[in-house]
Amino acid sequence: MLENYKKWLMAIGLAGSCGLFAQAAGSFRLHNSGSEAIVDYEKYGVFVGTGTSQYRYYIRDRNGLADAVGEGIYPNVEALKEDPAYQTMRRSKHLEGKLWDLLNSGQNQAAFFAWASDANQPLGIKQFYVGMVLENSGLYTQAIKAYEAAVIHFPTAYAHTSWGSPWYVGPAALDSVSWLIRHHPELGMSLKAGSLRILHRYEDNPRNEVFEVDPGKIVRVPAHPASPVRRIRLSSYPIQAELGNGPIHLTQFTNGHWQLFVGNKPYVIRGITYNVVPVGRSPDNGTLVVHRDWMLEDENKNGKIDGPYDSWVDLNRNNRQGPNDRVVGDFRLLQEMGVNTIRLYHHEYNKPLLRDLYERYHIRVIIGDLLGAYTVGSGADWYEGTDYRDADQRRTMLESVREMVESEKNEPYLLLWVLGNENNFGNGNNCRKFPEEYFSLVNEAAKLIKSLDGNHPVALVNGDLTFIETAAELCPDVDILGVNAYHGRHGMGDSFWRDIQELWKKPVLISEFGAPAYDQYRPEAEGEKEQADFLRNNWEDIEWNLAGGPGQGNALGGVIYEWLDEWWKAGPSFDPAVHDKIGQFQGPFPDGWSYEEWYGIASQGDGSHSPFLRQLRPAYYLFKNDLWNPKKWIKRGLPK
Q: Which pLDDT belongs to residue 402?
């Protein structure tokens, strides 16, 4: 790979959709959009080995195919020269500069011309991002053609994420085709069949992979407006299997769908990660224990915990508390938003506080043990990291799990147990090098939990799906796969849910999903709207795959990351008194960068009234008024 794009490819997100949302401002007209809205590839070539590892598409009529697809879409590399706008931009040097920065700048026409004409990009990567720019511009028919071309011609192309794991063009492009057709029924298209299975995909070694490719076929159907999702009545299906026999358990129906039950009622996890960190505090300078301190802080000495009870909403966002900016408390705000669950990463809890969260606000708690992630719970030195081969460290971590369960198992607020948090990425541990040792420990911990408490399910939280096959083999006592998934604006994608169904065979919880509310190219209000758009699409993807839905039926819900901006998290200075706007790594986010201090759906304003002030972003109201609104939730056929 060439260095001018390798840096980005090492950082792009796992589903590859890191696009823009200001489509009206970035729209443009193509000079040549091709002769066919739906390309009949069989007219111009031959498919061989469809659905197998021997798949190939051989072009017989190159000129005819080029005419059908239009400019910028493979194999049409000549039509750009006939586009007057391209010639004008090329002469005026609008196409020069950093290709990846141009992609996310909002200059969609320049980005299209630059990507379509650049001779240094691998063809599969180039074709995918041509599709993304066309989609960003609202040119959905052409975007579908570009993504389809990537699947048909370059299904085995791959790059790398910022975590070093492979990212694949073919599945991402096919997922994008499916998403666009689903969300734009006015186009009058349907995707028949279509799957791209990659055997050994999640072993973290591209050399072992085998691609079985069926690009499917796009066909014409009557155009129609969007309609509500049809859900099936699960009570008409017999029960096939159950995990757990306590009041909180998992049920699988004979159609393969999984549902979480609390008592006799189905329960969809509408969750959020909650951690209130005052501006200026950080674990890096010894002034904060992240997983604990928010439960204890009473800065104004009024006998109440600050964030949960004393926060107030800055309605006009002027960073002052006016007469209408009433003290309401985060717990009330979460309840009004529709949250029914919060996720806590590591134990050491204020039990009276969590009891009140449950009893007064009806919000349950996912309780976790980090199991050596970031060296928490293992006793290891940070610079050496947790060693899952070390017998003493394993005993220490299991003892930590035992303490957690014995302390919390009888608490009414407990929903389920969680082990780890992206340990497979190797953050402060050696799981990446020794995954078998790590996942064997996970199963030991799950067995230990079940020996102490048979009333609550056990989940493992992975960073995406790397090592999922290893986890499935070595963790039979784990009930739920939790996945921290940052796949971009389309959600996780059809292939994600299908792979879990085939490889894990048990239910999945999206244990983190989110996007920053900052975009370097746009005003603050637009960046916040982009965040809301990302979260909407991610949640709708989860809802599509809930039990009774048209998807895989293996989703249990999701956890938004996160409630409130945390100012301590990022560089360049790691100054917890500064709300940094420097991206930490590139990926599938609104402007192509992750801003670790901007993931809250509530902000702390200018920080002058931390930890009490809340400025609620559009994403908060999106969930409150629509996605998690009880009336609309029930209307969509989902359990309250």
A: 98
